[in-house]
Write a structure and sequence with these properties.
The protein has 2 domains: about 15-65, Homeodomain-like (Arc Repressor Mutant, subunit A); about 75-205, Orthogonal Bundle (Tetracycline Repressor, domain 2). It is mostly helical. About 70% of the residues lie in helices and about 0% in strands. Helix 4 packs parallel to helix 7 and helix 8 packs antiparallel against helix 9 (about 190-205). The protein has 9 helices and no strands.
């Protein structure tokens, strides 16, 4: 699988080619994620993003023609960050429980930087219109990675139905993490413990 979600129909005005221009775009997208998380769609504006990024508004518009284009770049970055976590779960020799702990740790970390960002992206903004959206590419690999976690459990009676189990499991984990982000409890050790227990109990009711 690819290391990043391809941006086939990029909404950017132009793609950065040099190291300096890539660093500028990276700063703008990071600042945009922060502002979007804190202000929501209604309070999101490019002037504030440029100020937080430490660039001129002209530099921002050099790469992003409007705030919807910037939103899409923020969405793409967030999805890639989540996929990076999922990809590391299957690396190396690990026990089934360790895979689950790595998954939970990684997803909590990915959502802790800007806790409200994922909710805003899902509930308040519309994805950029393209024949193959970043979201659909993300979903395909995302569920495949969850299915691999399911399949790693020995003697699991759910292996035959792993695609649906992966869907249910991913929705359950997302719900807990997004709820914790809204309540400010993402970094609670008790949250991690309970979420790991929830996943392990679902995959192996008799214990592993």
């Amino acid at each position: 699988m690819t290391t990043r979600i391809p941006s086939t129909h990029s909404p950017m005005r132009k793609e950065p080619r040099q190291t300096r221009s890539r660093a500028t775009v990276d700063s703008i997208v990071q600042a945009g994620a922060r502002v979007l998380s804190e202000r929501g769609w209604a309070g999101f504006n490019t002037n504030e993003v440029a100020g937080v990024a430490g660039v001129s508004i002209g530099s921002l518009y050099q790469y992003f023609p409007d705030k919807q284009a910037l939103i899409e770049a923020i969405r793409l970055r967030h999805l890639n960050e989540v996929l990076t976590v999922i990809r590391t779960v299957g690396a190396g020799e690990k026990s089934p429980r360790q895979r689950v702990e790595d998954l939970v740790d990684g997803l909590i970390a990915a959502h802790s930087v800007h806790p409200e960002l994922h909710r805003v992206l899902l509930e308040e903004t519309s994805p950029y219109s393209s024949p193959v959206s970043a979201q659909s590419v993300f979903e395909t690999e995302y569920l495949a990675r969850y299915a691999a976690v399911v399949a790693a459990y020995p003697d699991s009676q759910r292996k035959a139905a792993s695609p649906m189990v992966a869907q249910v499991l991913s929705s359950a984990v997302e719900g807990v993490i997004h709820g914790a982000a809204r309540r400010g409890t993402l970094k609670s050790p008790a949250l991690k413990e309970e979420l790991v227990h929830l996943v392990c109990s679902y995959l192996a009711p008799g214990g592993v």
